[in-house]
Amino acid sequence: MSAHPSSSLKLYFGIWITLLACTGLTVWAASLDLGRFNAAVALTIATFKAILVALFFMHLKGASEKLSKLVVVASLFFLLILLALSMSDYATRTWT
Amino acid sequence: MATASIPTVERENYLNKHYGVGSWLFTTDHKRIALLYLLSITFFFFIGGFFALLIRLELLTPAGDLVQADSYNKLFTMHGMVMVFFFLIPSIPAVLGNFLVPLMIGAKDLAFPKINLLSWYLYIIGGVMMLHCMLTGGVDTGWTFYVPFSTAFSNTKVVEAGLAIFVAGFSSILTGLNFVVTIHRLRAPGMSWSRLPLFIWAHYATSIIQLLGTPVIAITLVLVAAERALHLGIFDPKLGGDPLLFQHLFWFYSHPAVYIMILPSMGIISEIIACFSRKRIFGYSFVAFSSIAIAVFGFLVWAHHMFVAGISVYAALVFSLLSYLVAVPSAVKVFNWTATMYKGSIYYDAPMLYAFGFLGLFTVGGLTGLFLAALGIDVHVTDTYFVIAHFHYIMVGGAVMGYLGGMHFWWPKISGRLYPEGWAKLAALIVFIGFNLTFFPQFILGYIGMPRRYYQYPPEFQVLNVLSTAGATILGVGYLLPMVYFLWSMRYGKPAPDNPWNAAGLEWRTASPPPTFNFDEEPVVTWEAYNYDELNRFPVKEETPVAR
Amino acid sequence: MPDSQLTAAHNPALLHHFAEPQQQRDAASLGTWVFLGTEIMFFGGLFCTYLVYRRGYFGDWGAASKTLDVTLGATNTAVLICSSLTVVLAVWAAQTGRRRLLIGNLLATLVLGTAFLGIKGIEYKEKFEKHHVPGASFQFNNVMIPGHPDQYANPSHAEIFFALYFVMTGLHALHMIVGIGIFIWLTVMAWKGRFTPEYNTPVEMGGLYWHFVDIIWIYLFPLLYLIDRHP
Lengths: 96, 548, 231
Fold this sequence. Notes:
The structure holds three protein chains of three kinds.
Chain A: H1 5-30, H2 37-57, H3 67-90
Helix pairs in contact in A: 1-2
Chain B: H1 21-25, H2 30-58, H3 69-105, H4 113-135, H5 149-153, H6 158-185, H7 198-230, H8 243-277, H9 284-297, H10 313-341, H11 350-373, H12 375-381, H13 385-415, H14 421-447, H15 462-492, H16 532-537
Chain C: H1 2-10, H2 21-56, H3 58-66, H4 70-95, H5 99-129, E1 144-145, E2 148-152, H6 155-191, H7 201-225
Antiparallel strand pairs in C: 1-2
Helix pairs in contact in C: 2-6, 2-7, 3-6, 4-5, 4-7, 5-6, 6-7
């Protein structure tokens, strides 16, 4: 990293611009009538932004240890369990 | 070298290095913090026990004569909250785990000693809030805080109790965080994952649950408090809220929380059974990974607490099937422990007696858990004493037996003194008999239809209730005894050698009690875990602990 | 290892129970990541609640979401993204030993963080004026459900939206306040010259926390502001 200081700076500014552009994009996409896909598009853009921040700003990419990645993946996995198994109830109820 | 003219000086250890209240209240030594926890959780254990005693006394007769309905509601609520959040969850991790995790992996301390101290203070702050709540009126929602009763109807101190548990929860999170980082980062040279004691594996799995589950109940309690204060409608069916959502979030933590209580106990049992069978544990890696499996599967089963609450039939089916999954790693453990004992040379010392007790009681508790996981039977026994008996077999018969077994096993290391073996065996026996007499009748009571959380009951249930109350009295004696002789041994017990059990494990290769930084020189591990074959052939020479 | 003992004696930042600075840094890093994992679950309970009611009361929530100010929300997203840039620049400056750049970026982060809270405050004020704060004075009458001109939103269901809006953004704002506290401390330490290319773990860990709070907002923005926006 310290070998190419300017290259990492370039990367940071590039990510920054992309993140700002994505914010604009998500606001614009929300103004379109995509039916059910509005939510999907909004969440995809948000996830893309989150991944950029995690990989490049939080240096998950190229982290010397895989352990931090494992921690992130494990936490998200358990979050998914919480959401998915709760939904297994809500999505299949025959009453409201 | 030593001559009679030189006075015998005790070795410097973590207990005698510093004196004074300040040296304890501001210590960052994991061993001292463990003792701080020991004192505090023992205090709460007896508070919770006091409530249990009152409950059992009330149930001695069918009529509601000792207390009235409102007080009875508060009694079982406070019993549950204190025992679950202020005794069982911190019990083994915060006391024995705190003391032993660094010792067992050859570290000088936990990774974040100050955070460790902070976690004790958080526990104490939460505990004081809980005490204040109790003394100024208490709570009557049941330890489960079910909405909408807790948010809209109960006129007791729900918010304060919730806040107390919120704070204590962060203490639990910080303990888990410390363990995970310590186990990853501070292992001594040569202490590979496959050489870790199973106690460490169990605590690693426990920490995963503490870290991933506790935040969810924390935020849920925030929502309950907000709902109660502002009537947001999040959990209020009148305003379109769903009370079942609370139950989902609550049990997402509180079911895995049962494994926070039982997993460390399983770790202790692995240590004890290997040591007192003088054998390498059978199927080491299966036992190790079954801990992780229990931690993960534990998060998949929570809605089996809600079968009759109104979840969808499909979800109930899924959760019922998933619940059986937990039985697999639990059974793997039990089978491996029995296989370890097979053809072992078994020593019947007090820790082993507790381990035997654990095996039997945990098996009964676990198998009745399968009854409850079955949709059809669960409908029949939901909210009866069958459930009460089931989880007390796990939490008291399992977790507390393991805790007491561990306290006896490591007491020489903790205090530097030997406890009186005869009394300890007697206490183990009393606890086992008292426990079964207390809780086995409750299985029958529940099966024939006595519901939980009532202060009166039809006269035909009285015989079994009297048996249960009698058992509780015996159990109480069994719990008081160790406290008495542990205290006694601190002054009058024989000085303990470094390795009184000739046990494997790094913690036995340092002094009893250990020096402040645990080891005089950094240990290098060159042997496998539970190398009892070698230890049996070449017992570690016992050193006299005084006058070195 | 005489080597590491030598370092231990000469490095005041190395705590006694670590053998070498790298071990201490790795422990701090793992500890921070694990802590962020618990934070995911902490917000996770709220995301679960959100999912349940958004699914159940989509129309009412769309109506409620439409009353939020997208311009302010998007501005705040941009502000936080800019602050993430200044944070990553601060970490880079610390690692390469550029003290003035480090202090400048830490201060810029503080300014941006405060700006975020200020804008959030304006939004909160607007909610009070419109009686959109859940509680006794909550009002949400005669608001159309987007795409259904003949239907009014159910005020109770909208109230749940605003309840979650306040809990989620409030909790996020609380994390911002904690973050600002951490960054004030980092600025003071940087001012005193405590951070060197060899020792800058606190900057790095504070940065991880800040980025995480940013990520939470990256999700909160579309989830709360953009439920059913299109005309």
